Each structure stands twice: as C-alpha cells, then as structure tokens.
Amino acid sequence: MNRHIVVGRTGAGKTLFCIRFARFLGLHELTWLVERTDGRKDRRRMSLLEAERWLSAPHAHTTRQLQSIQVEVPRGKSKPSFLLTDTTGLADGIHPDSSLRDAMAKTLEAMLTAQVILHVVDADALGRALAEGEHAAWSALDDQLVQLGLHRGAYLLLANKMDLPAARYGHQFLAHRYPKGKVIPISARQGTGFREVRDHVWRLA
C-alpha cells in the first residue's frame, strides 16, 4: 500500500493535521499502525477526540515512532487507499536523547521510500522569525527537506497555522522561495485548505 508521509519540524502541527485530515476524509475512529524503532508493530484504536488529546500536544516530540492511518480517497466508483503516516519531528543538530535520534533516523528512512511527501511547516513561527529579522528563520534542515521533496516529485509543502496572524508572511516567503513547488496554505486547527490538499492527494494516490 502506498505511503503518504507527513514530515516537518517539531511543533509544526503534523499529528493534528493527520487527525483532522482523516476526519475530513470521513473517518470517525482511528486505528493507528505503530511502527517502533526496534522493528515491532502494533495497533492502537481510539476516537478522534482521544487522538487529539493524547497524540497532539504543544510540547516537543510527542510522536516518537511512525504511526499510520489507512484512509480512502473516493475517486468515482473506486476508493483508492493509502497509509497516512505521522512521524517524529525533526530538529537541527544531534539530539542528546538516543531514542529520539533513532526515531528521527526512522523518519528520514521512511521519507526515502514513501510515495508522497507532505511537508508541514509552522508558517506563523516562520513569519514571526522573519519579522524579527532572525538569521536562521529558515534553516538548512528546512531547505534540505524541501529539496529532497522536490527531487522526489510527489511533494506538497503545507504552510500550517494560517489561522494565526504572522502565518501569511511565512506563506509568502515559502511561495516566493520555492516557485517550482506546490505550497498550500492550511490550518490543521480549523481545517482550512484541506479540500485543496485532498485534490492533490487524489491525483497522487
């Protein structure tokens, strides 16, 4: 089954996007396939509310393994399905926690074999950093993720948190910097932009 992998920095809103996008596609309950760094796999079933409460949190590195939901995208009489895979947030440098280093390595490994890459960016944080003139507002890590995605071809850059005031500046920066990429403004919290994401996923599924 094709894998659509959701990647990005810690705190970008990847897990909330997965949960809300699955709801947008019609799921009422989530069964996660969890792939641990030691190779073991298990399943975890929960309601959408439980998923948001336990898996999506403001503190860093809530997700520490690959966790996937099987979703369908109706296309006429057919319903192609794929795995929507949430991942550990990536960070610059070498993390002191060895388990997180392993989880990040697993994320990068999965990126290389995924059929589609959905790259979630905190556009509000980016916009605020740009407004404050921070030199590292957009780091080498961020750029490397984009370049890898563009090289693969099946890649969407999702400018998240568009419900927050500085996000429009972050979105403008991304659209200008990567004119050859597909940059979609979304709000995982409010569900805006999901229709456009679905339409592109529909073509890629």
TrEMBL record:
Pfam families: MMR_HSR1. One of its GO terms (molecular function) is GTP binding. Residues 53-149 form the G domain. This is G domain-containing protein.
